[in-house]
Amino acid sequence: MTDEIYRASTTAPVNIAVIKYWGKRDPKLNLPTNSSLSVTLSQSDLRTHTTASCSPSYPSFDSLLLNGSEQDVSGARTQACFRELRSLRRNLEGQDASLPKLSTLPLKIVSENNFPTAAGLASSAAGFAALVRAIANLYELPSSPTDLSRIARQGSGSACRSLFGGYVGWEQGKEVDGSDSVAFQVAPESHWPEMRAIILVVSAAKKGVSSTTGMQTTVATSSLFAARASDTVPKRMKQMQEAIQIKDFETFGKITMMDSNSFHATCLDTYPPIFYLNDVSRAAIKMVEAINAAAGRIIAAYTFDAGPNAVIYYLQENEAQVAGLFKAFMGEKDGWKGTRGDAIQASEEAFGKMKGEVGVAVDLLKEGVSRVILTGVGEGPVETKESLIDEKGQPISTSS
Amino acid sequence: MTDEIYRASTTAPVNIAVIKYWGKRDPKLNLPTNSSLSVTLSQSDLRTHTTASCSPSYPSFDSLLLNGSEQDVSGARTQACFRELRSLRRNLEGQDASLPKLSTLPLKIVSENNFPTAAGLASSAAGFAALVRAIANLYELPSSPTDLSRIARQGSGSACRSLFGGYVGWEQGKEVDGSDSVAFQVAPESHWPEMRAIILVVSAAKKGVSSTTGMQTTVATSSLFAARASDTVPKRMKQMQEAIQIKDFETFGKITMMDSNSFHATCLDTYPPIFYLNDVSRAAIKMVEAINAAAGRIIAAYTFDAGPNAVIYYLQENEAQVAGLFKAFMGEKDGWKGTRGDAIQASEEAFGKMKGEVGVAVDLLKEGVSRVILTGVGEGPVETKESLIDEKGQPISTSS
Q1: b/e map of B282-302 (b: 16 or more CB within 10 Å)?
Q2: What CATH code would you report for B6-188?
Q3: What is the ipTM of this complex?
Q4: DSSP state of A389
Q5: Is B195-376 a CATH 3.30.70.890 domain?
Q6: How close is the nearest chain A Cα to the Cα of B378, in Å?
Q7: Which protein family is it in (chains A, B) (predicted)?
Q8: Across the interface, do B269 and A285 touch by the CB < 8 Å criterion?
Q9: Which residues lie closer than 8 Å to B143 by C-beta, 6 or more apart?
Q10: pLDDT in tens, A231-256
Q11: Does domain A6-189 have CATH number 3.40.605.10?
Q12: How far is A312 from chain B (nearest CA, A)?
């Protein structure tokens, strides 16, 4: 083996669940108490770019540089991903003695997000999906996205869904070892490419309870949680997959909103209660309700993860009545600029119908939303030649 | 029968539930989907004063004057109360021919609250309890408070609990006609007279969904509601009654907080979602959590009805660490004045422990709380000679 530098790079997407993951039946393996389903978002708007590299010339420890700052890789979750991937590589090396023994070399990983981490957007899903995909590329593993989802899940539960593009389920599974708790593609992005999303980034006074801590407190203390996991979600998983198959936005939207509310209801039913929604989040809900009332049907659907940011799904054909109205009512915000934002026009008819009743909500959004992100359904991880590590093994910064 | 004016007067209290009533199994009879439990609050702070009167000289229709304005009495709920009470009077008249036939005479009722209706405090409980108790007094009915609770329930569900003082349960009952859905006294106020309450009246931008509409939408759409009604509340009813019997404030407080959160969780799980708590309500929760953390145990317990106002229960012995801290942190508010408010001093030790971490919450409370009401557990309806109708049948205004 020479002192060669081995490198491979990928990008991976963020996903925003429409049926939420909340609660672990096994915290160590990140095995969930219920299945979940998400939409993978376009990587031109939100993605993690990761280069995995290994070399005999590297210092003898694994390292991870994220957005220019060194991360601790000693945590059980990162270690589980490294261990599983090395084990797969070791199997290959065992079968073919001509392969370089990459599994024995220290890993150097460099990773960058194309969105501000301060925005509070769940970046761990894209992060662990990119990490696992990049190392799998480096090791030239024949593993399928489903196989890799099993590994990424151990890094961060929802990361398993970012191994696929389009509409992605995560089967909770029954096995104790988690072998059947994997992601699967419900439909590729090409099946229903018209799905758009607007993200309202809400400036929170303070970060709320971490999702890892929060979900376990919910499982332990909420008297309503069991009904969600055992009855509510299984029914919705079925309905949601059907809605996606037949491209029925009204059902998709209604279940999305109901499931977000159900998740936050179990947070409120936790002791002590967990609040992720604030008055600005509620103003976004009010706006979506007014938009749907003006349209006479569900054309917009809100969902909230473990924070106050609103993600609002809609179809391209209704852009003027959804994104257009948010733009018209909220006025200047970072994110409306650029080709996509400039093209968005409001429906004047809907604006007229709504303006009498959304005054308070609009004031709250103007004050509380720091930026908007316009995006839509997108593809899964993409291998790239653009490396974040140069041929000498040094990190290359692409940050602006 | 002469043209005599028959009159009787009572006062009746407000009650604030610690296990919430939300959901009707029979909307017409106000039969609930779960039992509930409340603390009756002192009438020196919050009460309805009602005089019921009848006379052959009155115009031939029933009337109700509340705080100086004529009310519609044609609604099914008020009519049900009138009908049931007249029926009981008619039975008496049938048994004793010497009794004047009051059941045939028009009713004139005058009612006044000693608290601002604009405060958004649920006044319908005190209102219907006073109405039913005053007419029962007028008719000289031998009915027990339990019998009257069955009638008041038909006016407003939670009114049935205002027929008793102290700690009061409302048994959901099983009968179709509602005959076993009545209030009962868990313990009189003298059993645990140290229970105090501070009410933070929050200025809401707009009145939320009415509880009558809201609770039926919850029953129809929340997937988590059934578990609350069938499992959560029955367990808590038992625990709460035991806690009251043995005067265990920590259990009383914990269940109070959990049940308020459970109720609001089912509101959030309603479609479309119902929000009664706002950022000011959450600031009150944060303060209570900080107060309990500083004390190292539960000495304060928040609860919220169908609105943003916080009611915080505590024991007299902890006044400096509960009401005192709210006073010290919030500063000048309408309601701190007067003998009771002036006497309240903050615990300096607790103030010091908390001040570093409640800044944001304190700002929200200062801005969003319009007044405080200091009160405590109190007695049930009290007959009074002070009449709101003079000997000529004319209303007397006592309003300031």
Answers
A1: bbbbbbbbbbbebbeebbbbb
A2: 3.30.230.10
A3: 0.92
A4: B
A5: yes
A6: 29
A7: Belongs to the diphosphomevalonate decarboxylase family.
A8: no
A9: B88, B136
A10: 999 999 999 999 999 999 999 999 99
A11: no
A12: 16
